[in-house]
Design goal:
alpha/beta, Alpha-Beta Plaits, binds zinc ion, single chain, 2 domains, 13 helices, 4-stranded antiparallel sheet, 433 residues, 8-stranded mixed sheet
Length: 433
């Protein structure tokens, strides 16, 4: 009897302790009517260290996670500027516990048999599981899959990626499509998007042309340290886990999507405590060195770059300065056809995607993957912001309801396919055949 009580407490107390840091924190829906108001909300991120989970833009509500101590100030700032807000999650800890329970229950009843290769789409797999899966897949499909280590993260985790090709990357008439996910640690729902693409290109191939005509590079976990930390410690962790940026390491981590060697430091934060801290220099972080090397491997053939994030239902392209690339019309067009392909099959309660230049739609940024893609000459380079999937239990934003995992993979794949086929045809046209 005592033992039972002890164990119940043990598991319960660990769960409580894990999310303790969010005690009293709340998530607010924020509605802005002008660009100025949107900018003001974004600025609060660095002024009072609230955490903007998704950015408010006129016509689309944003969400902000506010720690207990900042709630009063946050509400006052918004009220003073005439910005509407509403508390959407009063008890964040309860939500985090619910997510833990749902994901744990889903993985327990996971029905994929052990004999079949492939990862299930009913839970969010941890780093070690995905890492092993990539190795197993390359072993099982040696003719089309190669697993490569791109380098090590700050804490020494391998950044593995897959090269998928029916011609071992030797046919120079094929374009390369590059996809990465989990550059931002907490964006768990982005992992099923790349895993689903891998499944459809290797294991369950129904559209042969995609496998035959294109060489694929897929990096499922671009920020492994941050990702693991978001599982073990801090659910809303975004950056990598680099230390040495502040006295006593009071603030840890670099925003990897501000650290690429493109316009570095021009629209990002130089404060180590900021969620958009850009690091000590262009590509100062080992994760970015690895990703830049992967992108640079066969740079002339990279035709499409997709960096998958969440959330907001957006497809964005550069430049982060607001300037448009010379092929602005085409890049917008391809963004639109990808968005429409997703919208056609999206969860009915979700909103339609918005497509546009990242600066025009959201805010200025520098050192991002999407801009780096353009900089290395890929004509089509995008940031996907996958939707926040709401369910009746109220799980929202970054928190993942297991019911939506396969859907996230499935619907995003519809967009990827559209972009990849355009990229293939575009590459052939550019090559003159
Ligand atoms: Zn992100």
């Amino acid at each position: 009897m005592f033992r039972t009580i002890f164990f119940v407490c043990l598991s319960l107390c660990v769960a409580l302790a894990k999310h303790e840091q969010y005690e009293g924190a709340a998530v607010y829906d924020v509605t802005v009517t002008t660009k100025e108001q949107a900018q003001l909300v974004n600025q609060l991120e660095n002024e009072i260290f609230v955490d903007v989970l998704s950015h408010a833009i006129p016509g689309r509500t944003g969400q902000v996670l506010v720690p207990k101590e900042q709630r009063e100030q946050f509400q006052n700032e918004l009220s003073n500027s005439g910005i509407e807000f509403e508390i959407v999650t009063e008890n964040v800890v309860e939500q985090l516990q619910l997510e833990d329970e749902l994901l744990a229950a889903a993985s327990k009843k996971s029905n994929r048999s052990a004999s079949r290769i492939g990862l299930s789409f009913d839970t969010i797999h941890r780093y070690s599981v995905v890492d092993q899966y990539l190795v197993d897949l390359a072993e099982a499909y040696p003719d089309i899959v190669t697993v490569v280590s791109g380098g090590e993260s700050f804490e020494g985790r391998d950044i593995k990626y897959l090269k998928i090709s029916t011609t071992n990357f030797q046919d120079r008439s094929k374009p390369i499509v590059y996809i990465q996910s989990l550059l931002h640690a907490r964006e768990w729902i982005t992992l099923p998007a790349t895993l689903y693409a891998i499944e459809k290109l290797v294991i369950d191939v129904v559209e042969q042309d995609l496998q035959q005509d294109i060489d694929w590079i897929i990096v499922p976990i671009a920020n492994p340290d941050g990702y693991e930390f978001s599982h073990t410690n801090t659910r809303f962790w975004r950056k990598n886990r680099a230390t040495g940026y502040s006295v006593g390491n009071t603030c840890i981590g670099v925003d990897l999507n501000r650290n690429f060697d493109i316009l570095w430091g021009t629209a990002s934060s130089n404060s180590a405590c900021s969620e958009t801290f850009h690091g000590r220099g262009p590509a100062s972080e080992p994760e970015i060195v690895a990703l830049q090397n992967i992108l640079g491997e066969d740079v002339n053939r990279v035709e499409l770059v997709l960096d998958v994030h969440s959330y907001g239902s957006l497809i964005l392209y550069g430049w982060g300065t607001g300037q448009l690339p010379p092929n602005g019309l085409i890049i917008n067009y391809v963004g639109v056809i990808m968005a429409q392909a997703i919208d056609r099959v999206k969860w009915p309660t979700n909103i339609n995607y918005i497509v546009g230049n990242s600066f025009q739609v959201l805010y200025g940024s520098s050192g991002s993957t999407a801009d780096y893609g353009l900089a290395i000459g890929s004509p089509l380079s995008y940031t996907y912001e996958l939707p926040a999937y709401r369910n009746s239990g109220g799980l929202n934003g970054f928190l993942v309801d297991p019911d939506f995992i396969e859907q996230a993979g499935f619907e995003t794949w519809e967009g990827i396919k559209e972009g990849a086929r355009f990229a293939r045809d575009n590459f052939r046209r550019r090559q003159g055949h």
